[in-house]
Amino acid sequence: MGIAMIEDVAQGAVIVVPPADDIAIGVVDRQYEDLVRGVNQRWVAAPERVVVATSAEDVRRTVRDAVREGKRITVRSGGHCFEDFVYNSETQVVVDLTELDEVYYDRRHRAVAVEAGATILRMYETMYKKWGVTVPAGFCPTVGIGGYVSGGGWGTLGRQFGLIVDHLYGVEVVTVDDRGKVRIVVATREEHDPNRDLWWAHTGGGGGSFGVVTRYLFRTPGAEGDDPRALLPHPPREVILAAVGWSWASIDRAEFGRLARNYAQWHLDNFAPDNPNRDIAAFMGLNHRSAGQIGLIAQIDADQPDAEERLTEFFRFMNEGINVEPEALTASVGDLGALPQFFFQRRLPWLQATRFFGMSNVQVTDPTFRAEYKSTFMVGNFPDDQLDALHAHLTRDDINNPNVTVQLTPYGGEISAVDPADTAAVHRGAAFKMLYSAYWTDPADDDRYVGWARDIYGEVYAATGGAPVPNDVTDGCYVNYADIDLNAPEFNRSGVPWHDLYHKENYPRLQQIKKNYDPLDVFRHGQSVRLPAV
Length: 534
Hints:
Number of strands: 18
Low-confidence stretches: 1-17
Oligomer: single chain
Structural class: alpha+beta
Number of helices: 12
CATH architecture of the largest domain: 3-Layer(aba) Sandwich
Largest sheet: 7 strands, antiparallel
Order of helices and strands: EEEEHEEEEHHHEEHEEHEEHEHEHEEHHH
């Protein structure tokens, strides 16, 4: 097949490229049906081909061919997109990155490189086993890095170390210019980099708008030298975990509201980047009553001073004003499973605890589940009308599903230390965020659970037109929790468009970057960044 020579336009050099090693899967191939669906089984497509890439050059050639043929391209990393942006009726060519999954040290850029098909767990294990470092990412083990990072990348260590994009040094992206020429661009945060805007767009601008990311480069700002052991944060050697539940049978409307407000108030009180409790990450599951319990899980860095005492104080604060004693957590909390063994504080090595978090709930490893999601960033405490609506829909008798929940998850701390304009991830003032989620397996239940999500969301934000608009309580939505209903005027009556809920004042800059790097709008989906009006 020979050796190809191409021009690396971003670096201005000629490089040697190996022959194509990709694999094109078509309708007649036995593995086709397994490669045309997302993790969420609501999303299944019928593309002409799926190209399993193993290099950036594979991706470049695939994109080039699809552009020449006028085919609609979508891209899969881990397959966890919350909407049908990868797998839909218009999809003709899927670029599958799941085999492009190496994690290694890049000497040229003095950064740890993570290829876009790597999963969060693979990244954690390789970084920590080889170099004793990490980046603050999520806990679902099978989420792919490709889309996760570009949406901002929140995780368990976020309050301690910021968002994953706060440690992003560079991106390698396959782009298409106004003449249809396809090239591989490396963009970094260096001030003199002519492609710096492309790096910025991938620090929270969402996936699928500017090109195909083939790898990310991580190095914490200010890190010096060429030793990968010193270029990224060191996670705790050990963490302390604890979990409790409150029985729905004993909780009334007032105590439900008090629990939610206690969680919100603690995060408002401990919001600042220099707060001594920034090493506490707490997850509350306002589960549907059929789950039996409302749950709370918390982790603290065991290496920090007074860790046990501070974690005890956190749980004491959470139980203030509650006349029900907490008990062992026997219910799942969203993506986290039941944790009855953590009713008393328990120490675990960090990587072991991270694996445990990721594997504790069968929902994240069930290949048949279907789901619906919605999100909110919170900058204030809950008003009465929001609590009334939450309680009403979490106690509905027509729902009998323990996997229906509203998850409250931590923000603030080091996340708040970054100016909203410094990265595309704009919601730096949020104290915590909310994920409305429902999981089920029977397609016949789609309308029931999608309807539940729309009902609760619309009623909680009824005062602002069915969406959590930026104000003194809410601050929009998380782009990685994609929700196409925000585009629809029958659901979002707020007058604030979906792109402003996700990107706020950063959206015009994202549009200009879109114009510069994808002027033909090759990379698009239901909520991709739109080209600016002429």
